Amino acid sequence: MLKTLFSLRVMGLHLLTIAVVTAFILLGRWQLGVFQDSGKPQASTDPAPVSVTTLSDVGGHMLTAAVGRRVTAEGVYDADRQLLVADRPPHVDAPGGNVSRGEGYWVLTPLRLDDGTLMPVVRGWVAQAGDPGTAVPAGRATVEGRLRPPQGTDSVQRRPEGVPAGQVQTVSTGELINLWSGQKVRNGFVVAQPAAGAALTPVEVSPPVVGGTLTWRNLAYAANWWIFAGFAVFMWFHFVRDAVRSDRDRAAGSPEMVLEG
Q1: How confident is the model at residue 259, as a pLDDT?
Q2: Phi/psi at 218 (nearest 5 deg)?
Q3: Of the candidate ranges 10-19, 111-120, 141-150, 244-253, the one whose mean pLDDT is the lowest
Q4: pLDDT band per the 50, 70, 90 thresholds, residue 37
Q5: Alpha carbons 147 and 52: distance in angstroms, whole number
Q6: Beta strand extents in 47-117 (DSSP E only)
Q7: Counting Cβ atoms within 10 Å, is residue 112 exposed (0-12), middle (13-18) or buried (19+)?
Q8: I want to staple 52 with a disulfide (CB 3.0 to 4.6 A). Which of 29, 73, 194, 224 is the partner?
Q9: Helix or strand or coil: residue 241?
Q10: How far apart (Å, rounded) are the C-alpha atoms in residues 252 and 3?
Q11: Beta carbons of 112 and 118 less than 8 angstroms apart
């Protein structure tokens, strides 16, 4: 049996089977990876900016398709109602609250639009509350940025002792309505893209994404390749078994074996 297993013709079959099975397994893993990647969020198209009034209402709900959209807004900043969002790194998706304590502030300033409504705008980030960059620009301003949905007041772990006056811990539309009493506040907030040379550090914000669609056919392709690998092993076993039986039968019928019998 060992002589048959290590004969040149069978050794060639061993090597061929190893190569085929390895290739089929790798092809299956590749198709599985394609299947897994298809379910990940994908960057969507990034349309041209539109007026923020078309995507953010007073007292309305923000559509999912509006999140991350580029928007423009024109008006005058209301310096008296500016707030600092405490414990915030300079990225809109970074965790805030007590876990990021001492990591800086978002500068949140309402922009009074021409219709009298207020649009909350995160103008940028500062490391210290007293940073001179928090000074509010005077005169009419044109803001470009990305629209974000309001944050829930329970979306971060709050400081047990609270925050000083003039600071908040989330950009919650409901909370802002209470703080800016008597004002019509639009839903959500705009993360501004500061112009070159601005005193504030920009707060990074990601473009809109859409959920991926799983391509189940790739999962089926992966299963097919692995089935082929199993079939290759079965055929290898079948051919090796036949070769061993054939050599045994040949040996049993040889003259030497007859004489010894």
Answers
A1: 43
A2: -70, -35
A3: 244-253
A4: confident
A5: 8
A6: 50-51, 70-77, 83-86, 105-113
A7: middle
A8: 73
A9: helix
A10: 15
A11: yes
